[in-house]
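Dear support,

I submitted the protein below through the web form. The confirmation email said the job was done, but the results page showed an empty box. After a refresh the structure appeared. I'm attaching both so you can tell me whether what I see now is the final result or a partial one.
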Amino acid sequence: MTSMGGETIAHRICSFCEACCGLELTLRDGKVMSVRGNANDVFSKGYICPKGAALKDLHEDPDRLRQPLIKRDGRLVEATWQEAFAEIERRLPDVMKRHGRNSVATVVGNPAAHSFGLLLYIPRVARALGSINIFTASTLDQMPKQLSSGLMYGAWLSIPVPDIERTELLMIIGGNPIVSNGSLWTVPDFHGKAKALLARGGELVVVDPRRTETAEAASRHLFIRPRTDAFFLLGIVHTLFKENLVRLGRLEEHLAGVEDLEAAIGPFAADIVAPRCAIPAETIRNLARTLARTERAAVYGRMGACTQEYGTMVNWLIDVINILTGHLDEPGGSMFPKAPAFAANISGQPGIGRGVITGRRKSRVSGAPEVMGEFPIGCLAEEIEVPGEGQVKALISIATNPVLAAPNGPRLAAALERLEFMVSLDIYLNETTRHADVILPGPSQLESSNYEVGLSQFVYRNVARFSPATLSHAEGQPAEWENMMRLTAIALGKGADADVHRLDDEFLADEIRGRSRGADSKAALHALSQWKGPDRLLDMAIRRGPYGDQFGLNPDGLNLAKIAAQPNGIDLGALAPRVPEMLRTPSGRIELAPEMLIADLKRAGADLARPAPDLVIVGRRQLRSNNSWMHNLPILAKGTFRCTVMVHPEDAKRLGLSHGSRARISSDGRAIEAQVEFSDEMMPGVVSLPHGWGHDLPGLRLTLAARRPGPNLNALFDDALRDPLSGNSVLSGVPIEMTPVG
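What the results page shows now:
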């Protein structure tokens, strides 16, 4: 921080979305006066979107919880921290004793990814509970990408990203990075980078059932029928093989399964798949030729590529195309970032590993296989409802609102009321936490340090950045990691009054003894002693990482103190080729034809002739929103009402709808109402409604959001409809009926 004329300038990383922009905050007397982009940030270079400026609104939001709440006589009332943890100690161990450890489930939401105090301590709570019932938002939006990456490269988060500053052709499928600022791709100011791509003579092609903001900025947009991306991509792969366009280049010696792949895609010629995806066969073939003949090109897919019944297949095929055209792990293509810390592909023996395993357990009711140690969030309601051994009786929810974010929210809300006990770690009394018996609020984001544990693994350029706390905690407010450690102590039988700092020290000492890496345990502990909690875990991970000082063995290497001393961050350079050292597969090769995915092609083949529904619905991203938790902030909530259903005028005429009127949208017995907005952005036969709304339930403390609650899109969807490989919920391309209201 620097002081100037009674004001203090502070820098921090924005923790509202995946862009992770560098911010400059002006403070006076402990209050935030302004928020702007940090022009000197090595990563975002001054870019800021409306969400970044809303950090001030979030910090000052009168509805943000600042004291724990305990349910008394059916009402959530304020309590002390001691009372809150005493209630947890009284009730949670009792449930575990009577019903077993699997009777306690944990569900984790998207905001936890932006709080490394939560993220690094969730495993400690989970291990202390000892339950197999773990659910996260990953099975709502990204598990297909994690699974396909794990199968191909050996680690769940070895996800390649476009090298946008050097590419000549970028094709985007089901993504809208101008609005999302990238997703599983940390790329602030995508719009500016896309303009630069076009200015240097490159091409940006967007394939999407809506002419999104990114499509508007592109050189070309193709409408595609929702849930048919796999067929479109299979047509491209088939063309690459048939027309001898495959260019494996340097990666050829590091690939396994090329012949198996070629044999398996035989039934999916462009002429066969074209009617299914509503893109002409010659267009598919020409795209394959262009991708193969462009020196530097990349294919990228995101939300629409994941939230469908072929999500894992689509994400696999995206990487397959990048490989077959010679564009994986090459400058200007799709490349693997090299994070300073926590990435699985920077630790252990380079170039080989045990890979990933799925299906070690199955969910009790549906028999859904676990993936990445968790079950599909669509299984949570049934695990609470259905009696029997292992029935979920208690729930710990962490920074999540699945009543709005997950499919069939009304069913889940009813199930939550059947729990014997529920604890929520959240800053809001929202649609999910209203069911809790105890709510533990975390501090404001500005009162915590920040390092993006996961998102630093998806950056468009390698960097190291850290934000110390901008403001001090309110009096009596524990850090989030301290709350997590107290839950850990209770689950371990040590009680709510345990010394959590001492317990944290013991955990750290055990870990260092097991992984000292040439430094003795006492010396390593001494080197880390200036930090506490997650900051200390971060320092340890950085020191052990690829740029680290290795606890003194590499004196010029990084540690947390060196990074913290650079408020604008440290530029670690452009992405560089990493194959084979980043591979962690048992074969030491990229698995181009994983058995699970080759087998799934039979399902796709049987589906080729399925007739297209008359009308389907898709979600959409919005710049002033992020899932379900930003609708209570004035700077983001202002302006026109945005939770409208976009309908092509031809469909509106056919259905008897008028602009601005209300329509009933129904699917398989579930229904919502929404305000109609005519838009030729939509492909005929497809309508679009943003997700994360529906703030009209009783018992909330979201004053501003409740004024314009909007409908809950996900209430339409069947919680049993999932990509069978990854367990990801199907939230896109679902058939619906629409009728006028009134």
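Response: this is the final, complete result; the empty box was a page-load delay. The first strand starts at residue 2 and ends at 4.
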